Every structure is written in structure tokens, then in C-alpha cells.
Amino acid sequence: MIACIRLPHFPATIEQRDRSELSGLPIGVGEPPQAPQSVYSVSIEAADQGVRAGMSLRQAQSLCSDLQIIPARHSHYEREFERLLEVLTRFSTHIEPEDTLILHADARRRRIISAYLVAPQMDEHPSATCYLDLGKLNQEALQEVSAEIQRSVQGMLDISPAVGFASGKFPARVAAFSLRPSECLLVPEGRERDFLAPYSSALLPVDGETLRQLSLLGLHTLGHIAELPVAALFSRFGSQGRILHRLANGRDTSPVQPYQPPAMGDLSKEHFKVAIPAQCSRTNHLVEKCSHINSRVPSITGRCSIIFCR
């Protein structure tokens, strides 16, 4: 069983969480932070008024006159995403973050044909998304795991995720995409094709030119693609056509990769130097210094527990 954990509108939601005065307001996260000219992320409130990521500030503010623009803090969003991955290690060692969506639909490595689609292009808003391989679970165990994932993420980040469950990454991703925060959905095994059929072909991991060709052919939904003979798709799109057919039918056997936490050197750009008196030999003084460092280092996957002195 594959779970897709998705926190939609992630950067904007982090800003609303950190600044209570922004809660419930339409906000846009500007890009770049020095002189924002376009919208990088928007809150749910802004999205409900038609504002989309990638819009110019002029266009966004014409749709939402009370839109508030907040400078982007990319390193902060990355740290919060690492905290999400850390809490999910309680449920599985196989956790794969989605940076750009790379779905192959086939676990047999010799047949892999890569197809790329940047996640924000996929659902119009930057979202924190990752996959978990939960192994085999019965219905009762799945309900318990689903509730515990919701509680754990909410407890760590104070944000509620959408969680989709399915036999493979792609149907789980579409399930999570279809939900609001705090909702869960299970796609029953064997019913993946029926579930995917009404959804847009734009959810497939393909480039813009392939999407344009699919539209010209009248293949606007995953159901339209699934109904075609695989030979017809192969004739038009080559090996990628086979992948499109497999995904549209809900057959995605690509594995969830084991999670590898970032190296300690990647966790922060800040370095701290703390002087320890040469004559000091008492342990409590070292503990005080360690606590001081911990108060200044962003909490991501751990705390300072070792001090090197020379």
C-alpha cells in the first residue's frame, strides 16, 4: 500500500501558521524575495478568488484586491519539509519526497523511460508531497495508520495533510490531489482505472508539448487515454505512450525509494562559534553552552548533542 502525503499551498500555509495575523487572509508569497514580481505560492483564500502560482503581481492583485504579498523564505520551507519527512519515518523507512514528479510506472529498471513534470505545474500550487510504502495493510490497520499520520503531521507542523492511499504512486497522488486538507481517501485495489477516469490528463507526468498533443487528439481525461489501445499511443508517442497507458489505467509499480536524511552540513547555512573557558572542566557549563546553541539552530531532524573543543 502506497500513501501520498500532500500539504497543499505549503509555503503560504507556513506563512499563515507563523504569523497569526495572516490566518484566514488571502496572501501570496512573492518570488524573488528581494523584489517580488510574480507569485510563487498563494493561500487557499487567494486560490478561491482565482489567484494561481506563477501569475504576475499585477494579474494576481487584479483578481484579489486585498491580496497581501509576503517575501519568500525558501530555506525555511525546506526545513519544515525536512521536519515532515522526519516525522513520517515513524511509519516507514521507504519515504520518497516529490521534488519534481518522476514516475516510471514500471519497476523493471531496464524499461525505465523518464517523464518529468514540475509539481507546481501539475496542480497549480506548490505543495509539499511525499510517498510512503506501508507494505500490506488490512482495512482496519489502514484506518489506524491514516489517523495516526494525520495526528503526527498536525502535531509536528500544526498543518493538516491530505492523504491518498492506493496500490501505486500515481493513483495515490491523484487521490491526495482530489482532497482538502485533513481528508483521506483509499482507492480500492482493482478499481484504480475507474477512479482515475474522470481526472484531467494534465495530471500525467509529461511535458507541456505532450500535454498539447494529448489535447489536440481530444484526450482530455485519463479515461480517454485508458480506453485507447496501447499500440495507438505507442505509435504517436513512442515508449512514453506505454507509460501513459499504464498510468491512466492505474498500473504504477515504480518503488518508493528509501529515505536518506540530508547531511548535517546541509541543514543550515549558519555556523556558530562558542568560546569555552580554558580553565572550565565542569560538565554543567558545557550543557549550558549546548543549550545555547540549540536555541539558535533551526530544529529539523535533531538537536546539538556533541561539542568539539580544541
Q: What strand line-up does the widest sheet have?
A: 5-8-1-9-10
CATH superfamily of the largest domain: Reverse transcriptase/Diguanylate cyclase domain
> What fraction, in percent, of the residue positions are helical?
25-40%
Count of distinct strands: 10
Give the ordered list of helices and strands: EHEEHHEHEEEHEHEHEHHHHHH
In angstroms, what separates the terminal alpha carbons? 51 Å
> Can you tell me the residue ranges where pLDDT is under 50 for at least 5 consecutive residues?
100-122, 266-274, 276-289, 291-310
CATH first level of the largest domain: Alpha Beta
Helix count?
13
Q: Tell me, briefly, the overall form.
A: globular
Instruction: Give the strand content.
Output: 5-15%
The overall pLDDT, averaged over residues, is 79
Overall structural domain count = 3
Largest sheet: 5 strands, mixed
What is the fold named in CATH at topology level of the largest domain?
Answer: Alpha-Beta Plaits
